[in-house]
Amino acid sequence: MASIKIVLRDKTTNDGLYPVILRITNKRKSKIISLNLKCSLSDWDDTNNQFKKSFPNHTQSNLVLAKKRELAFKIINQFELDEVDFSLEQFEEKFRGIEPNKTTVLEFWEEVISDLNKSGKAGNAIALKETKNSFFTFCKKKNLMFKEINPYLLDKYEVFLRENKNADGGVAFKMRELRSLFNKAIKKGVVEEKHYPFKIYKVSKLKIGNIKKALTRDEVRLIENFDETLYPNLAEAKRLFLFSYYCRGINFFDIMQLEWSNISGGRITYIRSKTKGKFNIGILKPAQNILDYYKNVFSKTKYVFPILLSENMTPTQIQNRKHKKLKKFNSDLKKIAVIVGIDKPLSSYVARHSYATNLKQLGVSTDIVSQSMGHQNVAITSAYLKDFEDDVIDKENEKLLNEPLELYF
């Protein structure tokens, strides 16, 4: 519980007097607030924490201290009644009578997006901007304050999203973005915690159902055997999918940024963008076929794949390019699935999921699968993961080549 005490500061001002301060302590942290009063040590009563009779106008001054003390306890009691886990800064604002923050949701949202762009986190900025545009398409009130975002409004926003063809995953993503924004606003003092609506509106209720995402080895073979000469517009999607599958589930962003300098001696070495983990992968034959194709046809920049067409793109340009190409990639994969007869929601992530599932079904231990994918925090079992040499993982990885089909590009 928070405690309040009025004391003298331990340092004097230039005139040799000691400032009178209010010290609040909460959660083992303290903050001092000046009360704009000061006196000498001889005029201060340490026992009762007030001025002695020797201090000029001591009666009136002690009355001021009593009112300050009463105000401090009143603020703390109100926080407790509102069940607000207040910060020392929030207490000081209340104590000093600082006006509540007038920043609107839209203003704060745009400020966060701007900060993300300045920090080089263009991908996060784009996602947050898309959620902002969606939310204010639903809510036309541009001067909306955070305290006006209540569970009822969130329920209505969810209905709006579903009416506009947002799947469970899309609804959950936007609600998590909005919740994260609200938490940032609380930390910045833009809104009080007592207005937090996500104690009642639970984002966890939006859990996505268990959709079978992994392809079987037979289904992967269907993609391997897909004749792209009949559908040249879908050829790139086939290559990217199989490259990801045969390179330990490398994700699209890392494929996009893969450089020829990352490839040497039959191995691919790169730093995963998401986890910053280092990968050293032995190149399997299907992946090598794909590399050979791009080396002969599209060796125009330092990048392996013709996704980033310039070497001097800004972080925002890279993210915009990623968004555009990934959208087309996933759209093309769905077309391939229809053509070859795969009745599953095919996407770039399915390659990674299929790699892990099929390796496991081939008898590879869970710890090696986890290690090969760079999983450092995978549920409880991650605590028991061991480090494996690259050649051990490569040996297990080669099990994917049982009964391989030749790839023609």
What does this protein look like?
This protein is mostly helical. The protein has three domains: 94 residues, no CATH class; 102 residues, Orthogonal Bundle (DNA polymerase, domain 1); 185 residues, hpI Integrase, Chain A. Helix content is 47%, strand content 10%. It has 14 helices and eight strands. The strands form three sheets. It has a three-stranded antiparallel β-sheet with strand order 1-2-3, covered by helices on one side. A three-stranded antiparallel β-sheet has the order 6-7-8. A two-stranded antiparallel ribbon has the order 4-5. Helix 3 packs antiparallel against helix 4. About 3% of the residues have low confidence. Belongs to the 'phage' integrase family. InterPro entries: Arm-DNA-bind_5, DNA_brk_join_enz, Integrase-like_cat_sf, Integrase_catalytic, Integrase_recombinase_N, SAM-like_dom, Tyrosine_recombinase_XerCD.
Q: Which descriptors apply to this entry?
A:
single chain, 409 residues, mainly alpha, DNA polymerase, domain 1, hpI Integrase, Chain A, 3 domains, three-stranded antiparallel sheet, 47% helix, 10% strand, DNA binding, Integrase_recombinase_N, Site-specific recombinase XerD, DNA recombination, DNA-binding
Please describe the topology of this protein.
Layout: E1 3-8, E2 18-26, E3 29-39, E4 44-45, E5 50-51, H1 58-81, H2 88-96, H3 105-118, H4 122-138, H5 151-163, H6 168-187, H7 217-224, H8 235-246, H9 252-257, E6 263-264, E7 267-271, E8 278-282, H10 285-297, H11 315-340, H12 348-361, H13 366-373, H14 390-397
Antiparallel strand pairs: 1-2, 2-3, 4-5, 6-7, 7-8
